[in-house]
Amino acid sequence: MVPWEFAFRRTEGGSDIETVTILGIAVGLAMDALAVAIATGIVLGKVSGRQTFRLAWHFGLFQFLMPVVGWLAGLSVERYISGYDHWLAFALLGFIGGKMIFDASRGAGADRTASDPTRGFSLVFLSVATSVDALAVGLSLGVLRIRIWYPAVVIGAVAGILTAIGMHLGAPLGNRIGRKMEVFGGLILVGIGCLILYRHLA
User: Fold this and answer.
1) Cα–Cα distance for residue pair 89/174, rounded to 1 Å
2) What angle do CA 161, 90, 97 make, to 5 degrees?
């Protein structure tokens, strides 16, 4: 039984879930996205509206889609997915964080946009890594026969909003200190990956 399942079982009727409970779950799921967004803001230094939209949109979209995918998958594949989701998050965050550190080590003269985490495969990897926990939530909702669309929309919206906030919280620090903060941002991502792995294995 995943931790979220206790919250689901307290609802009446077995078909809906209370809004307060959904918001609590959504905020909990969005913490990894918030931390990664802060690290991204640190790396970028100056965050544009497009960068904010790209990261917030993709993080929110994946946080919305993962519960739906989990809900559709149901109990039949839970034992296969739940055993490896934390390893996937660890690998993806470790890869992106390591790439940031490597890019920063090439020298301050390198083009900063080459390491923009809001573009390309980095954006996809980070979106998956920060949303795999939502897959387990969707699995639990499917097993308990709880309707998925309202919780999924709330989870996605909260993740998108906190991601946008996180980017603008991290940007001033990166802008003041400069490109060296890319190493710090990369270390944060690796640390988040390690924390996710420890949280599941402990």
Assistant:
1) 25
2) 75
pLDDT of 75 reads 52
Give the span between the Cα atoms of 190 and 94, in whole angstroms: 5
Q: State how far the Cα of 94 lies from the Cα of 142, in Å rounded to an integer.
A: 31
In the chain, what are the helix, strand and coil shares in percent, each to the nearest 5?
A: 80, 0, 20
Question: What is the pTM assigned to this prediction?
Answer: 0.69
Interacting residues of 79 by C-beta distance below 8 A, sequence separation 6+: none
Q: What is the pLDDT of residues 178-196, one digit of tens each?
A: 555 666 667 777 887 787 7
pLDDT, one tens digit per residue, over 57-76 is: 999 999 999 999 888 876 55
Residue 134 vs residues 47, 98, 161: alpha-carbon distances, Å: 27, 25, 16
Q: Nearest Cα to 69, choosing from 122, 121, 119, 131?
A: 131
